[in-house]
Amino acid sequence: MTERYPSSRTAQDDHPPPPRLAYDRTTWKEIAHLLANLPVSLLGFTYVVTVLFTGLGLTVTVIGFPLLAVGLAGARQLGRVERARARALLGVRVDEPSRLPLRGTGGIVARLWLALKDPVGWRTVLYELVRLPWGVLTFTVTLVSLFVLWPVLPFLARGLANVDRVMVRALLSPSDELERRIAELESDRGVVVDTAAADLRRIERDLHDGAQARLVNLAMGLGLAKEKLLEGQADEHVAAMVEEAHGEVKLALQELRDLARGIHPAVLTDRGLDAALSSVATRCTVPVQVTVDLAERPAPAIEGIAYFTVSELLQNISKHSGAKAASVDVWRTDDRLLIQVWDDGRGGARLDGGTGMKGLADRLDAVDGLFVVESPEGGPTTITAELPWRDRPVTAGTATRKAH
User: SS3 of 290, please?
Assistant: First the structure.
């Protein structure tokens, strides 16, 4: 079973089929579209003139610009309706434009300015303005041809419908790849924010329930021991309390080390992925061979994502795979950092399997990465992750280590 993290891109056919002589289903759909052009374009033209031109006329007042922004938002919805009509009757499939990223863009004035600059809304306005004369023409020609030019109507319908197709693709499609990428990045930003918030909550919980609680108990124990010493009760009971406090200190220090390792391990900062992944592998319950083939180190952010990706995958191998052997390979290809984690376990790993795979895929996608799972039932499992390479002028060695 192979699962690839989904992409938002869709393919579309830019080449209409050749003209047909028969009155088949496609021809009748084109005729219906052309006859509907007049009433639909009349409604769109009326909206544009009434709402948007009114907003432009009132820009000298306080309400003019907000009214214009609302009008452009309404034009976006008209474009959505037109895309749906073209999809149903003309077979034109275009991506929906991205939403305006109004959240997190500053105050009211900044959001208003962003709405007023909306290229999707303005292209839809232009579409509705040119559609009225075109709608009159296509309605008239199609209606007359139904009664006068019946033998050549399929050719006429196809030619007029092709012009409609061109207009929809030119004015109602997303402006370019950048606009689609903005939508993806906006979604990815939400994933990153949610992940960071969850990590902060985990750190707070671990501090509160672990090291903090132990340090509170330590302070109370040392306070009691101090009181007994001041009272002259330097007996075995006080010695036991001090011994217990010493044990609490060691446990608290270990928990703080574990917590720090979960935030960003010092070995990764000091020595890079080779040493850090080898350290992670020693904590896996399965023998893991780690091979890191990097002539230099990537940027700290990419290095951190690679480390935590491998760390979580090795935890999954320990808990769920039933494997007897595993391997981790890291290398660079052009401007990409490649990670491959393999195990000979039972397989069946999925992005929606509840083992954190979806979260890993989201994190990699947020930095323009890729996450691929190949895990047939019965195994083996091979998980490949790709990250963008970002240079950092620090040399790292190439090594192969055997854990366990």
Answer: strand
Spatial separation of the C-alpha atoms in residues 52 and 19, rounded to whole Å: 39
**Which contacts qualify for 314-318: CB closer than 8 Å, 24 or more apart?**
314/280, 314/281, 314/283, 314/284, 314/288, 314/341, 315/284, 316/349, 316/355, 316/356, 316/357, 317/284, 317/286, 317/288, 317/341, 317/343, 317/345, 318/284, 318/285, 318/286
Q: Quick check: is 166 in a domain?
A: yes
Element at 166 (helix H, strand E): helix 153-171
What is residue 398's three-state secondary structure?
A: strand
List, in sequence order, every residue forming a beta bridge with 324; answer none if it has no partner: none
Cβ atoms < 10 Å from Cβ of 341: 22
> Cis link prior to 380 (omega < 30° from 0)?
yes
Residue 402: strand pairing partners: 289
Range of the domain at 204: 187-263
Report the distance separating Cα 59 and Cα 74, nearest Å: 18
For residues 244 and 152, state if they share a domain: no
Q: Are residues 152 and 297 in the same domain?
A: no
Q: What is the pLDDT of residues 293-327, one digit of tens each?
A: 988 888 887 888 888 889 889 888 988 888 899 99
At residue 96's C-alpha, the angle toward residues 90 and 168, to 5°, is 40
pTM: 0.45
Residue pLDDT, tens place only, 356-403? 788 788 778 777 788 888 989 888 999 999 988 875 544 444 444 444
DSSP classification of residue 17 = P
